[in-house]
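note to self: dont lose this again. the chain is below, predicted strucutre after it. 251 aa total, dont forget to put it in the shared folder this time
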Amino acid sequence: MPRALDGVDDRIVLSIGALGFAFGPGTMAVILKTDVDGNADVILHVGSSDTVDYRMTKAGTDVLRLRCNSSNVDSAFTILASQGWQLVAITKASGTVAPRLHQYIYGTNAWTHEDSASTLANSSAPGTSAYMGSTAAGGSYWDGDIAAAGVWDVVLTDAQIEALAYGLMPWYAVQPKGLWLLDQDTTSQKVPDLTGGGANESSLTGTTVGTSAVPIFSYGHDFIRVQRIFDVPRARLPVIVGQAVARAGLR
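---
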């Protein structure tokens, strides 16, 4: 099952790992669902400062927002509780350009790909941490579930973005800089960066194991454990196998 965040103070703090690049070119993608409309909630914030960073947010108007340093661009589409599970993504080329925003709603099998109405410059290189579910300083806490998230330092195509909704393997088709699958059986199990790049969970406030599964991902089943072994980079195999052995109670 994915990870549920309460919108009050729940968040996952990550080490920066390989995420410390200026966003542009770049891609962020997250599988999520929101429980509340009308809140300004941070989904993924990369950077130790609230002004030198890049972040994906659901704005108070429920649109998807990309922030680089202190500037924003928004989608025309909205992220609503009634839509249930969805994949949202943002891609940005280098320079002062219009980012592209993406949404897939699982319940209706509907895709949206759109360029923002305004342009945005690259972010500065962020600091030493990243945050899932809040700003660096705390606040704008995510109220809902997060199942998976990835960051790349390249612009994924629309077709590559669409492939992410249907299984884990496409998340590795282009090497990500950070990749997290939030399917741990308990919150005491730390969230690892599956790339081996080091953006692992460093601290945690709250969160619970969710009760609603993403339709395309079979959380808690042996198939996804085996699928991961074949999907992950070779350097990650000992870690993934060790986790599977521990979960099976073999050590």
